[in-house]
Amino acid sequence: MFDIKKTTQPRSLEEAVRALVADPSSKCIAGGTDMLPRLHRRELGSCSLVSLGNIQELKNISETEESDLLIGPLCTCQQLTREPLLRRRLPLLYQVFSQIASPPIRRMATIGGNICRPLPGGDLAVLLLALDARLYIQGPASARWLPIFQLYQEGGKLEPQPWEILGRILIPRTSLENNQLKYTKHNSSGPSIRLALRLERGEEGCIKTLRLAIALPGQWPCTQPRTEAALRGLSPAEALEKLPQLLPKDLSPLHHPQIDRSSQLQVAVELSRRCLTKLIQEGGPRA
Amino acid sequence: MSLQIIRCTINGQERELAVEPGTSLAEALRGLGLLSVKEGCQAGECGACTVLLDGQSIHSCIYLAVWANGKSILTLEGLKAPEGALHPLQQAFIKEAAAHCGFCNPGVILTGVEILEEGRSYSLAELRQRLSGHACTCGGQQNILHALASVLQAQGLLRER
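ok -> structure tokens follow
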């Protein structure tokens, strides 16, 4: 028996926001694959739940007129592995979804739940960070778009407010077209280090945009703006040479009993170097 | 704490249940005497609590009973034919000695039934992947795999690759 005082099952986003405002102690629940085990382990106190499962508008996948990709946060991993639009526009995301957890969990777990609860399990947060995804946040009075990196700033304390709900995930066309993307995860012993790298090449193959998102053990996922800026405009060979010198200055790993700080840095640098090497070897689209 | 009324079909019978907001589907089903639904890890990892919800396998320990309103649920008790005959997969489990302690069997069999009802062909590697949500701590995975594969083979749905 979970320590739940009340479960509300709204049928629209607005109704869900109203339920959160009416009871500020209540929490949103999507697929429940993370929250219910946490309630069972008593990591969360007694609470009321606003269950989003009946809100159909949060389960759609579509394209905007500008060819951006719109994903409803309640889309389950299984739904996303079967979605032809996603397979065509973003095959890597499709591959990542088909590897997450076991089939029954993929049937219940949602993309919204995965990115709103990225610590410690979220496989997708780094990928969506690398893609410069934007989040549509619905509040009681208004709605707004939030760049995904803000969700994880300052330990995730800034955004969104407890009475706001993630309504849509937008992946911009500019991150999808003429871009190369790699995702990798290191977890051979102990906690995992996840990394996603997006590369857009400019004239003569030089780096036009490089977005590098990393999640180290016990930390919120984040991009590496200083390294990204320093590598912009360089040739692939120059970027590969400079990456191992630049990246360690950007990262601040925390002590972890199973993997010390220097090993975390070493793994992160090596994963980044391998991803960049593979993308360069694949020789993706150029401007 | 107020009770909530849900209506659902359980093993072919329409039922009306009064459940507390924090009751898991596994607890609600066990409360009805459907003891094939095992409560193992209660974290959605071991698969012992697997039931079919509208034909799809789910971990009922991390599924709230109130979410089952309007759904159709199948547990192992509902698999038996009216005259008492076992499902072909259950017979294959006996033949392949796939039951050791038996704790994981109800959940694995229901996932197997879901696979068989899909009517598509599988390779052994794909079957292993599909069964990855079930933990058999007795180490009986190979026999379980062979039992499921034998039924698929009899239906001409087992691929070499």
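Helices of chain B lie at 25-31, 88-95, 105-118, 124-130, 141-154.
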